[in-house]
Amino acid sequence: MDHMVLQLGRLRCVIVDDSPRFLDIARRLLEHQGITVVGTASNTADAVRSATELQPDVILVDVELGPESGFDLAERLHDEAHPAAVILISTHAEQDLAELISGSPAVGFVSKSDLSSDAIRDVLRAGDGTEGERVAPVSGP
Asked: What count of Cα atoms within 13 Å lies in the side-chain half-sphere of residue 57?
C-alpha cells in the first residue's frame, strides 16, 4: 500500500542549491512533472530548518553549496534523524563522485542534467531495499 504513495502520490520535496537560477528552474520543472516543491534552501542552516519545519518526503541536495558541502549536509540530516530521503544532485558526473556518494547516507544521486520526477522516483525505488528506513516516509516496508 505504501508503495502506491511512491508511484502515484505527490512527493513533497525541498531543493537545496546555492544557485537561485537553478532553484527556480528545478522547482518549475518538478512541479510541472507532479512533484510538490514545498521549499528551497541555499545553505546548510536553511536546509536543516526547512527539513524540520516542512517535513518533505525527499530533499535534493547539491553536492557543492558554495563554501559548504552537500555531503556534510546529507550527513547532518541523517544524524538529526530527519525522515526525508536525501538525493544528491550535481553538474558533475556520478562516476566522478562515486566514492563520496557511496560513503554518504544519501539514497542516491541524480545529475542536474537528468533531473526529473521519474529520475527521483527511480532513485527512491532503487534505494528502497538498501536504505529502507531513510525511504520509509515515501515507500515504507
From this structure: 20
Is the CB of residue 65 less than 8 Å from the CB of residue 48?
Answer: no
| pTM higher than the cut 0.90 | no
Read off the pLDDT of residues 32-76 as tens digits, 9 standing for 90 and up: 999 999 999 999 999 999 999 999 999 999 999 989 999 999 999
Using a 10 angstrom Cβ sphere, with 0-12 exposed, 13-18 middle and 19 or more buried, the burial of residue 141 is exposed
Q: Are 16 and 73 in contact (CB under 8 A)?
A: yes
Read out DSSP for 75-107? HHHHHTT--SEEEEEESS-HHHHHHHHHTSS-S
| Residue that has been written with the C-alpha cell 525527499 in this structure | 58
Summarize pLDDT for 118-134 with one digit per residue, the tens.
999 999 998 765 443 33
Q: From CA 15, how far away is CA 121, in angstroms rounded?
A: 15
